[in-house]
């Protein structure tokens, strides 16, 4: 008798958490679980701003998938998903044979949301995956090296524009504040030559955050030389900088866009209704109209009691994975499933190595204490997917 | 009464050695010694291939000039020399006032010799100074990072062409042989994707070297994946590779030219007769026709007993500096001067971290023993200019 097939797409927070919990809870011969991912590794998206700045080695933010999977419980396929077909319950891959499923968990990552800004996709960098952030880091260092290697001193080589002052934007700027003095030292460049500019279209930094914490962050970063252009949309990104609304041009060799994400395009391509590529899932995380098609992570859209969408976060994706794995086990065993509700455990935004801001245990925290809690949070994730041994291995890096 | 003015141009091997010996030998009020250098640091040219490959931190190859000068004996001016005028005994600087001299020591560095190869100056990198080698290292790493960040896999990003199989070319290739596996690991690139190609117009690698040693070096490098194109002139260097004589094109994102150097152009511009920019100095290292104008290092041309020119080396520049400083002291004290004769102490060429080839104490040496002797040689230079403290500081790096 054929076992029920569970196919999980994407080894991000949501997909990987679903998979490791399934392999823990399921007995042999209860289901055939397959995880598909483009790379042989999981990367910790919430840490990517650090290797992007060069403050942490990329390997800190990466976990070999094989090292956290039990091969007798889960089959891993390294491939690119090219299509999902919910009518025929089939997933197409770039290299391998199509996969049939009884239950599909869609956890494929987001795509950058450019809000139609001209030239952004072509000319900006995105903090999106491991290859991308190594590229950003090397690009920035290359520009620093180029500055003194050229006869003509081009200040644009030392100008970095970060588009977006949301979570990722502020965390990235915080890392750069730590990193730039090191780069200046390494490449014999006076610190005052380097400009670090954070541009945000919204009227405030870190929209949705507590104002007192926002003020702390802005003050902290301004003191360390960050220039803020708030309430200032970027009109265009060119190959030599950005044009702001109103016409001001900033010449910058490095432009990194952190202004937003949208859902994975494969969902729209499958004919599913989305908003910015995200699917408004039901309370069981199902795509409306399908009993067997679940979406977790950045491609899922969930509303709070006031009817406003929750921002996509690692915290939510992790909870979704935990919750969904329980529901799937129950379904396989003929039981009932429980609705999912997001439960905020607080939010911490780092401001470089030594500081952070946020809410933890219901209280506002700032500075080195917040920074420590943030680090503990990283370790917790490693513990959840790979146990103590993975946690200790990463904590040493 | 005005003191005799000695002006030393360039803090390379020749200029710096002259200066530190003068400050050691001269008493106060015997002369006014001024050293002019573009950068506030001396760089160890024979080590530049290592930071260029990324195998050693650039700071290993750099010495702060202030740290080896006695300020009460030598005045240091950081500036660019724009002109020497031997008729008026004057040196012009880019920023500061012109300097009058009674004795001039010209030790300014060489310029790349391109042999008229089209596009080389515009498109190739040169192992020439600290800013330049940091640029090479960052460029190479950037290309590796770019490879996986692009959708399309461009093999030219992973192709490195080193033009010239002389001393610097072979030493640089040797470092790259060590460095490339590290880069492959760092950027998730299979080693076999990377091509390292050494192109040489002459019929042999390391012309002038003992054949048995040359064979050892070639074998060692070939085993580690180096492709040699010997007896193959480069016709043109473009922005995307090189065209070889006969028309073969190699697509390469990184082209480093090590094929030769010429003397500093300021000498020709001063109306002095040169051969490839180098001055055939007399036996006292003087420019023919001048009693007070000495040239040391790469811009000086000296012939052996068979009438063939010695290649410009750090060893010779160092000896010239030692010798010239003695002659200058003697001149100041009304004594006579001695002719200079090059005395070879052997030659060692490194093949990366673990191996080298060469002649030491009159014997052929290869492998780790030669590599150790090469390292001792570095230390010796630090000892000569900065004593034990500098030597130990560098040995730790």
TrEMBL record, chains A, B:
Transmembrane segments: none
A Pfam short name: Pyr_redox_2
Record-annotated FAD/NAD(P)-binding domain positions: 5-321
Entry keyword set: FAD, Flavoprotein, Oxidoreductase
Biological process, per Gene Ontology: aerobic electron transport chain
Requisite cofactors: FAD
Signal peptide (residue range): none
GO terms for MF: NAD(P)H dehydrogenase (quinone) activity
UniProt family annotation: Belongs to the NADH dehydrogenase family.
PANTHER family assigned to the protein according to its UniProt record, in alphabetical order: 64 KDA MITOCHONDRIAL NADH DEHYDROGENASE (EUROFUNG) (PTHR42913:SF3), APOPTOSIS-INDUCING FACTOR 1 (PTHR42913)
Protein name: NADH dehydrogenase
């Amino acid at each position: 008798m054929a076992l029920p097939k569970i196919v999980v797409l994407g080894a991000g927070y949501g997909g990987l958490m679903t998979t490791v919990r399934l392999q823990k809870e399921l007995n042999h011969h209860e289901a055939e679980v397959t995880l598909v991912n483009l790379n042989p590794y999981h990367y910790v998206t919430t840490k990517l701003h650090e290797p992007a700045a060069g403050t942490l080695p990329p390997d800190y933010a990466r976990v070999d998938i094989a090292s956290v999977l039990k091969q007798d419980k889960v089959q891993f396929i390294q491939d690119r998903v090219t299509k999902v077909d919910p009518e025929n319950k089939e997933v197409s891959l770039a290299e391998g044979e199509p996969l049939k499923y009884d239950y599909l968990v869609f956890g494929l990552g987001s795509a950058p949301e450019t809000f139609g800004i001209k030239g952004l996709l072509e000319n900006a960098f995105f903090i999106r995956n491991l290859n991308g952030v190594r590229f950003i880091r090397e690009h920035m260092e290359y520009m620093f090296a180029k500055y003194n290697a050229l006869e003509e001193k081009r200040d644009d080589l030392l100008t970095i524009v970060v588009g977006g002052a949301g979570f990722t934007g502020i965390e990235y700027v915080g890392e750069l504040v730590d990193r730039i003095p090191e780069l200046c030292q390494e490449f014999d460049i006076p610190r005052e030559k380097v400009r670090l500019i954070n541009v945000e279209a919204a009227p405030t930094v870190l929209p949705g955050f507590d104002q007192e914490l926002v003020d702390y962050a802005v003050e902290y970063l301004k003191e360390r030389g960050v220039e803020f252009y708030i309430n200032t949309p970027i009109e265009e990104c060119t190959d030599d900088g950005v044009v702001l609304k109103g016409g001001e041009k900033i010449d910058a060799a490095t432009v990194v866009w952190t202004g937003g994400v949208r859902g994975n395009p494969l969902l729209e391509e499958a004919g599913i209704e989305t908003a910015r590529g995200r699917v408004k899932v039901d309370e069981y995380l199902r795509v409306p109209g399908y009993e067997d098609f679940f979406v977790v992570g950045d491609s899922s859209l969930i509303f709070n009691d006031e009817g406003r969408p929750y921002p996509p976060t690692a915290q939510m994706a992790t909870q979704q994975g935990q919750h969904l794995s329980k529901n799937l086990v129950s379904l396989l065993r003929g039981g009932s499933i429980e609705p999912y509700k997001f439960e905020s455990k607080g939010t911490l935004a780092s401001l470089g190595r030594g500081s952070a801001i946020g809410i933890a245990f219901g209280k506002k925290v700032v500075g080195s204490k917040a920074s420590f809690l943030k680090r503990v949070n990283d370790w917790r994730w490693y513990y959840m997917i790979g146990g103590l041994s993975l946690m200790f291995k990463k904590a040493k890096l």
